[in-house]
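Notes to self, SDR family NAD(P)-dependent oxidoreductase:
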Amino acid sequence: MSRSYRDRIVVVTGGGSGIGRATVLAFAERGAGVVAADIDEAAARRTADLARAVGAQEAFARRVDVASDESMEELAAGLPDVPDIVVNNAGIGMAGGLLDTSPEAWNRILQINLNGVARGCRIFGRQLVDRGSGGHIVNLASAAAFTPNRGMAAYATTKAAVLMLSECLRAELAPHKIGVSVICPGFVNTGISKTTEYVALDAEGQERARKAATRGYELRNFPPEKVAKEIVRAVERNAAVVPVAAEAKLNRALSRLSPGAMRLMARVDPAVLERRGRR
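result:
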């Protein structure tokens, strides 16, 4: 973990907060030039300021909407050089069953969680191939990628797709000496619990659900910095699939050893558990 990234450029989408910010800072501490890209440009600027303070060779903030081809292409074209490492981290949370998920909600999460990652892979992957000197792409999935759950239809689907996309891309880019890693965190204490959309609930119910989820994440208290550390390690080792946190490692193992048990667990209604927890 002492490797220097001096003279390397690292781009992180969703770099304004959470795992994205922690990843920017982890590479900055190792001397990299970093680009914090986020739909919230003010948050990206704050990350860039922190990155300079901890040792970044240089730090830039860029506004980007990963759901837009044009925005992602502008991000790539506007960088000072082709990045050496790209971390496709930006994403949103969504909870609820498929029957309660409107076409608009379904398309929204696909555009960000899946297509946003695919855009980053395609646009920056092409740049890395054309440059011809290798590089690395890291995609953020989730333990939900291999953990079916009746209340996470849209979210888990996008993360499972990111996992498979990463595996396919890894094979495609290997001849070009470009590594691809997919990171699958468990419950990480970030702000996503406060913004997750609960598709079956009204405004009051959504607020209750978000508060309950936030309490759970805070009690678990697994910090984003630990995920960032695993991202750096994945780049250094060219790791393929990296589950992060005990629950992610356990579910990854169960999905391989006992898929039937995972299917039974998927039937548990999280809303029932949440209501029992309030009693």
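- The domain at 9-278 is CATH 3.40.50.720 (Rossmann fold).
- The chain is about 50% helix and 15% strand.
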